[in-house]
C-alpha cells in the first residue's frame, strides 16, 4: 500500500468511526429510555415516529436549535471548548481499538482499526483519562458554585478510579505480555475456554466497576448528581454544548464495552458457530445493556462511599490480584 492509499484509507476509517459511533451514541439514549421504561413498567418514547424511533432525531434538532448561552462572568474560551474536549477524547480513544476482524471489500483487505499501535491499551486508557479535563474545565470556567462542586467531584472520582482501571488491566497484560489489543485478542484465539475472564475473573469485575465510575454511570453518577448539585459541571450549559458532554459519555460506554470484550471476553475471535464480527457485536451489545440494566436496578451511593469503595476495597484487591498473578507466572 502506497502512502497516498494509506492516508485515504485512514481518512475513510476516521469518517466511518465518527459517523457510526455518533449515531450509536445518539441511538443509545433511545435504547436507555426504552430499557428503563420496560423495567419500570412504562412505555418510554412512543409519539415521535413508530415506537418513538424518531425521538433521537427530534432531540438532535432540539439541541442544535436551542440558544447557546455563555454566562457573563465565565471564562468564555475555556467554557466554550470544554465540551469539545469531552467528545473529542471519547472518539480519539477509538483510534487504537480493533473493532472487527479483517475482511475483504471489493477485493481489498480492510483492517478495521485506525491506528494499529503496539501500545494500544496504554493509548486508549491515556486518552480516556484526559477526558477528565472536559468536566473539570467546564465546572471551573462556569462561574457557578454548583459547577465548581461538580468539577471537584470529577477530579476526585475519575483520578481515583483510573488507578483501579490500570491495576485491573495489569494482571491480564502480564499473562499476554503485550500492550497491543490485537495481540490480546489473538491470545484468546483458542476458543471459549481461552477467554481471559476465566483466569482473571477478579480483574474483570474490577474493570467493570471502575468503568461505571469512569463513564459516570449509575451508581457512580455523582459528577452531575441532580438530587444534590443541580447538574454539576453542566449546570450552565445549553444546546449542543450540553449535548456534546453526553455524546462523549455514550461513546465512552461503547469504547469500554469494546475494551472489556477484547481483553476479557475473547474479542472478535469466532465463538463456536458464531463468526467473530457478530460475536463482538453481541458481546458489546450485552455490556452496553448491562450499563442500562444497572441504572434501573441499583441506587445511587454517597461520595464518601464512592471513595471508601475505591481506596479501601477495590485498590487493595487489585494490588493483591497483580501480586498473585505475578507469583503464579513465576512458578
- Nearest-integer average pLDDT: 89
Radius of gyration (Å):
20 Å
Strand order of the largest sheet: 1-2
Strand content: under 5%
Percent of residues in helices comes to 55-70%
What's the helix count? Answer: 13
Give the beta-strand count.
2
The tally of structural domains comes to 1
Distance between the termini: 45 Å
By secondary-structure content and strand pairing, the structural class works out as mainly alpha
Helix-strand string:
HHHEEHHHHHHHHHH
Q: Pick out the low-confidence regions.
A: none
The geometry reads as globular
Largest sheet: 2 strands, antiparallel
Subcellular location: Cell membrane; Membrane
Organism: Hydrogenimonas thermophila
Keywords: Cell membrane, Membrane, NAD, Quinone, Translocase, Transmembrane, Transmembrane helix, Ubiquinone
GO biological process, one term: aerobic respiration
Q: What does this molecule look like?
A:
There is one protein chain. The chain is mostly helical and 331 residues long. It has one domain. Helices cover 67% and strands 2% of the residues. A two-stranded antiparallel sheet has the order 1-2. The radius of gyration is 20 Å and the shape is globular. 38% of the residues are buried. This is NADH-quinone oxidoreductase subunit H.
Provide keyphrases for this structure.
331 residues; mainly alpha; two-stranded antiparallel sheet; globular
